[in-house]
């Protein structure tokens, strides 16, 4: 159904039958601003009415009733819809005699319908296509070196120049799992665009929302002052900068230290977890072994050490001075404040 400027109703068809752990769906249920329940219940002004189909969140999981909207969309009988993929896309051209991943069976033959079969039919008909999590966006954990499935991200499968029926590129919201509000905020923008009330979401070269992934972990980290002062943790029990114990934050695009994980709480390095680059296209291979000092971290921490140590000493002196009250605060019979009428 359409209004003059956009859609009044839209379906969200969410498939997690990629090479997936369903962690992104679980994560998204923790979003508070907005909550997925608020979007589905129509509590967010300016959005179309949303019909969500997600196997983890559906009371009809497992049966034909659950598959019905997906089958209808694949036939071209259900629109408009947003196609959300969670998990990476296996290469079914190298599946030997079997298949890597399936979602329902063919009604006539009973043969499994592969994820790729569904993508081939749903993606071109979808008004928008959204990748939830790093696996769907770039391949992620399942696509690491040595995996037998040849799996990949959605843009590797559909092509980076893919455009949906709504003329949008794939919208990637990486993270392993995706940060709850990062996903819901992006989906809300896409829905608002579908309603005709907002321009398309601005994306960067890797098809990520610019406003979410435009800064590094380091630029938002609670521990950044320790880095600047050349004060580094030697183990994981320290509140200091963790670059020497494996943190990749200075070169990773992620807003989690600013946003937190649930209700603003958490945010990997803020709470003692090294950043392992889980939002990045090069994750995980380019960040392993996870707990070694990143190559650039050795050099930058070595260079900042003498500057940081000097600055820290100077700041210590200044801090000591600032921790004393001015000398004219006294109860003697003389004014020593410098007041000169
Ligand atoms: Fe699971 Fe992480 Fe892949 Fe999401 S991105 S499906 S949380 S492994
Ligand atoms: Fe940067 Fe990581 Fe150190 Fe935080 S803990 S200041 S992100 S290197
Ligand atoms: Fe992933 Fe690093 Fe962001 Fe944590 S801070 S969510 S490990 S990219």
Q: Would you spell out the secondary-structure blueprint of this structure?
A:
Blueprint: E1 9-15, H1 23-28, H2 36-40, E2 49-54, H3 64-75, E3 81-86, E4 102-105, E5 112-114, H4 115-122, E6 128-132, H5 134-138, H6 154-158, E7 171-173, H7 180-194, H8 210-213, H9 224-228, H10 256-259, H11 295-322
Parallel strand pairs: 1-2, 1-3, 3-6, 6-7
Antiparallel strand pairs: 4-5
The protein binds iron/sulfur cluster (3 copies).
What is the H level of CATH, i.e. the homologous superfamily of the largest domain? NADH:ubiquinone oxidoreductase-like, 20kDa subunit
Q: Per CATH, which architecture of the largest domain?
A: 3-Layer(aba) Sandwich
State the end-to-end CA separation.
78 Å
What is the subunit arrangement here?
Answer: single chain
Major β-sheet strand ordering: 2-1-3-6-7
Distinct ligands, ions and cofactors found in the model: iron/sulfur cluster
What general outline do the C-alpha atoms trace? elongated
Number of strands: 7
What is the class of the largest domain in the CATH system? Alpha Beta
GO cellular component, one term: ferredoxin hydrogenase complex
Family: Belongs to the [NiFe]/[NiFeSe] hydrogenase small subunit family.
Main location: other
Domain NADH:ubiquinone oxidoreductase-like 20kDa subunit: 21-188
